[in-house]
Design goal:
Number of strands: 9
Radius of gyration: 19 Å
CATH topology of the largest domain: Spore Coat Polysaccharide Biosynthesis Protein SpsA, Chain A
Distance between the termini: 31 Å
CATH superfamily of the largest domain: Spore Coat Polysaccharide Biosynthesis Protein SpsA, Chain A
CATH class of the largest domain: Alpha Beta
CATH architecture of the largest domain: Alpha-Beta Complex
Largest sheet: 9 strands, mixed
Shape: globular
Length: 299
């Protein structure tokens, strides 16, 4: 019987998926099965996986129904005690999974664990450890990003980069989850096409009494947004803001007036950010550059 199943959802960028799977195959513990769910990639990604990684269980979907639906296609059949949701733009090193699995074996109340994630330049991906955002912390987080800063409560600044601590949420790019917890709280909510389904899952895990732990002693690389570029295409930007609305209405309703203000504010941000992105692309085209925009499996 498997001890671990790894699920990687892909959509384009076979180069990133190849690097991810190569790192996984050099690092996996015994009794591990790797599943790749291709979300109807517009290129040869599925064929590349089939050819270069015959030991991987490849699931070819005929449509892109989102990150949650693609993962759920495998999660619904999980029999191993642990499952790892891993982004295709993520790379892991030897010993990382053994370390985390052993830690979860020792702490049976932990339903989910994430590790320290670093971006391509070696800096911390602050979404590796998070508090669940409120409307106010979200506003502060986005405002700080505009000026190139971090430090919002959302990024759990009370937990050190190399600490081991309980947190409210970890990043969907790397989520090691106990199958027993999945059976209790249910699968990912497929209403979130992409974005916030990881936060929603974390909220539900904690509500059911499971702990979520960030372990900064081990590190994976996350080429954050590597399959989509630095600016979200309009479709992804829409789903990002739509997921913010869904998450707020599902978990953080206040009063009809406050709810209307929050939802209006989210869609106003969508309009402003979409306009800014359109202007940026127009400027890039006028200079002869054409930014590539391929939908990521998850950011």
């Amino acid at each position: 019987m498997d001890r671990l199943k790894i699920v990687v959802v892909t959509y384009g960028r076979s180069d990133l998926v190849t690097r991810c799977l190569s790192s996984v195959l050099l690092s996996i513990p015994e009794k591990t099965t790797i599943h790749v769910v291709d979300n109807s990639s517009p290129d040869d990604t599925a064929d590349v996986v089939a050819t270069r990684f015959p030991e991987v269980a490849l699931h070819r979907r005929t449509s892109n129904d989102g990150f949650a639906a693609a993962n759920n296609a495998v999660l619904a059949e999980i029999t191993a005690p642990y499952v790892l949701l891993l982004n295709p733009d993520t790379e892991i090193g030897p010993g990382l999974l053994d370390h985390l699995l052993d830690a979860m074996d020792e702490h049976m109340d932990v339903g989910m664990v994430g590790c320290r994630l670093v971006t391509a330049d070696g800096s911390l991906d602050h979404a590796a450890k998070r508090h669940i955002p409120s409307p106010w912390t979200a506003v502060r987080y986005f405002a700080l990003k505009v000026v190139g800063r971090t430090g919002s409560h959302y990024t759990a600044p009370d937990v050190g980069e190399y600490d081991v601590a309980e947190v409210e949420a970890v990043n969907g790019a790397f989520m090691l989850v106990r199958a027993e917890a999945i059976r209790e709280v249910g699968l990912l909510d497929e209403r979130f096409w992409m974005y916030a389904e990881d936060l929603d899952w974390c909220v539900r895990m904690r509500a059911a009494g499971w702990s979520i732990v960030y372990d900064g002693r081990v590190t994976a690389t996350h080429l954050k947004g590597g399959s989509s570029g630095t600016a979200r295409p309009l479709r992804l930007n829409y789903h990002f803001h739509r997921s913010m609305v869904l998450f707020y209405l599902k978990h953080q309703r206040r009063s009809p007036l406050v709810d209307a203000c929050v939802v209006t504010g989210i869609w106003l941000r969508f309009a402003l950010s979409s306009t800014a992105s359109a202007l940026t692309r127009a400027f890039a085209r006028s200079g002869g550059a054409r930014p590539r925009a391929v939908e990521p499996a998850h950011e």
